[in-house]
Structure formats: C-alpha cells, structure tokens
Predict the structure of Riboflavin synthase.
Amino acid sequence: MFTGIVQGTAEVLSIEEKDHFRTHVVKLPAELLPGLELGASVAHNGCCLTVTAVDGDRVSFDLVKETLRITNLGELQPGDVVNIERAAKFSDEIGGHLMSGHIMTTAEICKIVASENNREIWFKPQDAAQMKYILHKGFVGIDGISLTVGDVSKTKFCVHLIPETLARTTLGAKKLGQRVNIEIDPHTQAIVDTVERVLAQRDAAQVIAATEANIG
C-alpha cells in the first residue's frame, strides 16, 4: 500500500526491451535506499513495481505486458524522471489517502491554467467509464500523487496544484497532450458500484412487480 505522498523523483538510467516486457533501471535518491531489498514494492508514477536488482543507487524493476499497456511507463525513455514512493509502513503518517499502486487508466492533459501561486490542470481519462468514480472534492491518484478533485465535467476533471507539489513531483514539468497514470479511490469506487447495484435491483424488482400486476 501507498499514501500518495511522493517521496522523491528518480531518473531512468537504462531500459532493456524484450517481447512485451522490459526492465528499467532508475537512480533512487539516497534517502530512499535504506532497507531496500529484492522483492520490495516501489511506486513509479503511482504504479507498484517490484525490485529485481539493487546495485548501489541503481535499482532495477521489471514491467510486464499489462503494465506497459495500462500505464504511461511504457513511454519512458532513458533520462526521463518518475515520481517515487516506497511502500507504506504501519507507523507512517497517512498524509494523502491509501492507494494500492494499481493503475486503472491513463489520462491526457488537455488544459493547463497557470497563475502566480498555483496551477490548474485538466485531465481527460482514456477510459471514460472511470469518470463516474471521479467526484468533486473526492480523492484521485495522479502519477502516484494523492490529489483532491476540483471541477468535474462529463469527460474530464481538474486538480489545483500548489508550488510545493509542482516542485517535488513531475507534474510541474508536464505539458499539454502528455499522459498520466490514474488510480481511482477504492472507497469511492465501492460506494458508486454499491449504489448502482442497489438501484438496478430496485428497478428490476419494480419491473417484475408491474409485470405481475398487469398479468393479474
């Protein structure tokens, strides 16, 4: 599990391509290295990856076909930078919201409104069906960052970013047309799905009752 509070950024040093598979090596910040072992979970742009090799500050991770398909990690090139978060411990402060590191879809940056002290960025999810889980003032994970949803339309949503977020994460350098990873808040998803299921069952029961009444 993760908290959505990015602990640093890491440069992609090298990428080894194979058929529907790749291994990339990143240079982790020194403060994120203590206790790092093979098999540990580290979020890259919000996507949970497993450590496969450690050579000083050079750490390797494998990316399978599904990860490359669902996330923006398949677009990375050597020299690119990713947001990094080590897996949460039970004693950690939950400054954002609990996140699993499982990306649901990506979203395109479709509008950026910059002002002196903050930035408003609009995102259009690739999978429009995910918009029902993105609610005004709700939580969303964007490239591993826990953020509060601002305005919402039928096809897109925005967040408001303070200078600290822009400075500590990769969002400060993002441009129009670039893709970000999206993780939906699981609690919001559970509530929306439950309400939809209850309403569908109620509507079905009403249809059955009306049919029986007509027959009778």
The mean pLDDT is 92.
